[in-house]
Specification:
It contains 11 helices and 17 strands. With 369 residues, the protein is an alpha/beta fold. The protein has 2 domains: 11-18 and 261-361, D-serine dehydratase-like domain (Lyase, Ornithine Decarboxylase, Chain A, domain 1, Beta Barrel), CATH 2.40.37.20; 24-244, TIM Barrel (Alpha-Beta Barrel). Strands 1, 10, 11, 12, 13, 14, 15, 16 and 17 form a 9-stranded mixed beta sheet that branches. Strands 2-9-8-7-6-5-4-3 form an 8-stranded parallel beta sheet. Helix 4 (73-81) packs parallel to helix 5 (96-106). The model has no long low-confidence stretch (mean pLDDT 98).
Length: 369
């Protein structure tokens, strides 16, 4: 049984480790990206691999997003169950079991899915006919990341035509991700890398249109490249997700480059041991804070430097003010990667002015099938 604090609880009394979200900051981040999209004539379809909850999806839609992205069928199921009715699944959905689930989601929401192979097109078409339901399809294009995606030349055009001919499928457009650029810290280099990636996506769109098909959707963008990709005229929608909460990695990437986003999500911890001078131990370990992009930063007190995390322990070097930390003191950590940290928790504890306002289930936790 989960023992959850009641609204009105001071943030200091929430048991640790816990994900704490400052609602004022998160809502300001949502508004800032919505404003950017509106001012630049591009639609916003935020990726819920970050938020992992209908709560955040609906907040972003209320602020102007046209819908959301999901990484897997499981995420799409969770979002549809929570009342989200416009979902783009940005991965290939392969195999009869997943495809049956996909059409279950499509019975409750408008679902579009990415493909990059003729085999996948054939099995989706067969299922669409069996279920008697048209399915929107976009091509995932390999734009330089060397991950999934069809090559942007003749292969993309041939695949688009196959989708267009396939009974039960509707060709809607193309998508790509400039993932090789989003973490590049030098802005000029990041811009060059992002635009090279986008050029590959637009080349695919040009070739497909030259073959006689309409490309209604050209979808791309990450938080690290939102103000680059989002200013390219032909991009129709942005898939940014991490801007909702921000994290230490993206703050490092942006550096002095101006942006409107602030960190809204922290992990709270408690000092559990002071085993030696200059060393403190806190309770968030790797089960509470992901370290795939590096160790977290301590932001609540100066002089506490995270040296490493084991499963249940955070080891910190302390100096200056942090030398005064006592057993039982609370500490706030800023994760380097919010998405993978959130995936390890059951709840967001959402606060305003230091007081708990609501507890939100992280309904997308474990939805990776």
């Amino acid at each position: 049984m989960d023992y959850l604090p009641l609204p009105g609880t001071p943030v200091e009394e929430i048991d640790t480790p816990a994900i704490i979200v400052d609602l004022d900051i998160a809502e300001a981040n949502i508004e800032a990206m919505s404003t950017f999209a509106s001012e630049n004539g591009v639609s916003l379809r935020p990726h819920m691999k970050t938020g992992k909850s209908p709560f955040w999806a609906l907040k972003q839609i209320e602020a102007g997003a046209i819908g959301v992205c999901a990484a897997k069928v499981g995420e799409a199921e969770m979002l549809a169950e929570g009342g989200v009715n416009e979902i783009l699944i940005t991965n290939q959905i392969v195999g009869q079991t997943k495809i049956r689930r996909l059409f279950g989601v499509a019975s409750r929401a408008n679902v579009t899915v990415a493909v990059d192979s003729h085999e996948n097109v054939a099995e989706l078409s067969e299922a669409a006919q069996a279920f008697g339901r048209e399915l929107g399809v976009i091509l995932e294009v390999e734009t330089g990341m060397k991950r999934a995606g069809v090559e942007p030349g003749e292969a993309a055009t041939t695949l688009a035509k196959a989708v267009d001919r396939a009974p039960g499928l509707r060709f809607d457009g193309v998508m790509g991700y400039e993932g090789g650029a989003v973490y590049t810290e030098n802005f000029d280099l990041r811009k060059r890398q992002a635009l090279e990636s986008v050029d590959n996506l637009l080349r695919a769109a040009d070739n497909i249109e030259a073959s006689g098909l309409e490309v209604k959707i050209i979808s791309a963008g990450g938080t690290g490249t939102y103000d680059i990709t989002g200013k390219v005229d032909r991009i129709t929608e942005l898939q940014c997700g991490s801007y909702l909460f921000m994290d230490a990695k993206y703050l490092q990437v942006f550096g002095d480059h101006p942006h409107p986003f602030r960190p809204a999500l922290t992990v709270s911890g408690t000092v559990t041991s002071r085993p030696a001078p200059g060393r403190a131990i806190a309770d968030p370990g790797q089960k509470a804070i992901s370290i795939d992009q590096g160790v977290p930063e301590v932001i609540s007190i100066e002089g506490a430097i995270v040296q490493g995390l084991s499963e249940e322990h955070c080891v910190m070097k302390t100096e200056g003010p942090a030398d005064n930390l006592k057993i039982g003191d609370k500490i706030s950590f800023l994760p380097t990667h919010s998405d993978t940290t959130i995936a390890q928790h059951a709840y967001y504890f959402c606060v305003r002015d230091g007081v708990l306002e609501t507890v939100v289930e992280i309904a997308g936790r474990g939805r990776f099938t």
